[in-house]
Amino acid sequence: MIRTLTLATAVLAAGQASALSCMRPDAVTSYQQAANAEDSYVVLLGDFTFEPTEQPEVTDINAPEPAPAAVAGFEGRSIDADGFGTEFTAPVTLEPSCLAAWCGGFPEPGTGLAFARIVEDRLVIDLGPCGGWFFQDPAPEDIARVEACNAGGACEVAEN
Predict the structure, then answer these.
(1) The domain containing residue 45 runs over which residues?
(2) Is residue 155 one of the residues assigned to a domain?
(3) Is residue 158 part of a domain?
(4) What is the pLDDT of residues 99-131, one digit of tens each?
(5) Around Cβ 101, how many Cβ atoms within 10 Å?
(6) Is residue 109 situated within a structural domain?
(7) Per the domain annotation, does 15 fall within a domain?
(8) Tally of domains in the chain
(9) What's the pTM value of the predicted model, to 2 decimals?
């Protein structure tokens, strides 16, 4: 009985101490996930302006609190059949979330490629600990890969 309890305690402690293992975010992978999701998404490329809220101090590693959502202004373009050709300006909600002891945080204001989920009458960019829905200062080749995928071409995931 004591041996089993000791083993169970060691396993639980190891689980809490282990690091979160995330795959490197890739814009085409995010595009594919958004395209296959039950929710609807808008793919945005342009300038995000906002005052980020600091991440709260983690007091409970089993249930940390993410930073409260922030509203960003967005000015740029959304994707259409011809690439990022549709002018688009709207407020976007940046929503950090947590997974176990790890929380996502805010990007820097500025240029980004984002996959915004349509929630009722607003756009939400999920900022989880593994990333993937917002790409700060995207490389031209990442933008081109997303445009090609959207146009029905090859959806090539970047090599790590």
Answers:
(1) 20-150
(2) no
(3) no
(4) 888 889 899 999 999 999 999 999 999 999 999
(5) 17
(6) yes
(7) no
(8) 1
(9) 0.83
